[in-house]
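For the sake of transparency, this paper describes our internal protein records without simplification. Such a record has a labelled line for the sequence and another for the backbone structure tokens. Nothing more is needed to write down the fold, since each code stands for a local backbone conformation. For reference, a complete record is included directly beneath this paragraph.
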Amino acid sequence: MSNLQAAAETRQDSPVMVEAGAAVQTKRSPHLIGSLMTAVGGLGVALAIERGGSFLSNVLAARWGGVEVFGAYSVALMAANNVAWYAGSGIGTTSARFISEHAPGTEGYRRTIRALATIGLISAAVAMIALWAGAGPMAKLILRNPKLVAPLQMAALSAAAFVLVECCRGVFIGTRNFTHIVVLSSLMGFGLLMAVPAAAKFGATRMIAGQSTVLLVAVVVAVVLIVWKPKSPASKRDVREIEPASLGRVWRFGLMQLAGVVGMNASGWWTAMLVARGDPSLLQVAFYTVATQLRNFSSLVPSLVQQGNLAFFTNEGSRDFGGAKRVIEVSSIAASVLSTLCAGAAVVVLPLIVGHMYGKGYGAAELPGVLAITTLLVHFGVSPAASRLTFVSLPWSGAVNGVWAVFVVVAATLLVPTGGAIAATAILFTAHVISMFLGLACLRRLGELPPGVTWLAVLDTLTALAIAGLAWLRAANRAYTLGFDALILGVTAVATLILVQRAQSCGVLPKPLRLASMWQSGLAGLLASGRARPSN
């Protein structure tokens, strides 16, 4: 039954590709890496503006409002984020996945927008009602602080706004309109910076109200940009009308994503709880938290390849670049390069970060931090392939996520109580390796595995193990720290060069001789234009 469901889902999600000859693919291939990096750059700028504004607003609010007010604001904001995340059911990815199949302005685009708007509004209403109704019991029974009832009730509006913001952002990613993403993020980043600190002196409820207002204004502007004469690079290509997804299919896609991620989050929570329970001093919890924070920070850049290029991972979005298999292969190369560079650099400076930012007492967090950071290579290196599996077969993708969650729960139960933070991060690393190769096996079974991606997965795994092993030797032999740092940088450089050569062999990047020829031609043209310019 699982195979039949997978085949049906594959047929449903895979419209007939437009055939392209080798000459056409060769002609368009050099532009693919530029399009992929445009998404990374555009989404990176938007992320920097939005998170930078949010961070500064929190710093100012903490200073101007005081500890008690800022604490109440933080609790309410955390509740709004969690409720919105579950009620939204992956609305951002869902929007990007389905809107990418239609050029803006077409009938299919309008029908898909209406379906996404319906789901977004219902999900926002569910988030708002759930948090509003649960504010009282949460404040009085769980948090045992009746003063938090009003901030939590006001946060219900923020929860709804979070859902709508992600829906709009997903539409912009699906249509690859990164200018509008920057506009949306700028409205939120600068708006929060102006509204939240100013309201801090009036209490947490006013802070949440100011934040909700900023988010809703950003949503209104985003909706206007979506419906008012929509234009995007997609509208410049030949418009090919395909049947838009039904409301039920869109909702099912989101719910399947939610089910998989909930299982993974639950297993992650169980691991963290075991770390805490196994060490009454809570030192291991602190080390595990530091490792997780370092991993999240180091993953910001590599994750942009997957987040910003979701539109290219569908059949319709990839048809101008040689098909989905080629796009996934090239995207995986780009993600592997960024993951390798970020992981290698982060591991080299890790002892300085742990010692100077967190303090000397966190020295034991170095090895868990290394394992957490090297997980980037096996998590984000071939993450485009994982996204592709989600698009072509939800049952197989759910099965991979289920294996990940079960493995983490069982291994953590057996090993974390005695192994602490190191065991926890090692288990997560191993789980990502297993899920990576299982996902590739599923793609191969479905006939969707791009050439060379399995080779990339092996290289990413070996690079991660080499970097982690050298970092372990560095921690055991502090007298040779500089030597091991040089070796880690060497491994990073070699892996990056191999990936670059792979990109050149695929025609994504120009080969050295071609690059030299292009440089000479450009330089000769510049000199010729200089000689031709009349002197004054």
About this structure: The chain has 19 helices and no strands. Residues 349 and 485 are 9 Å apart (CA to CA).
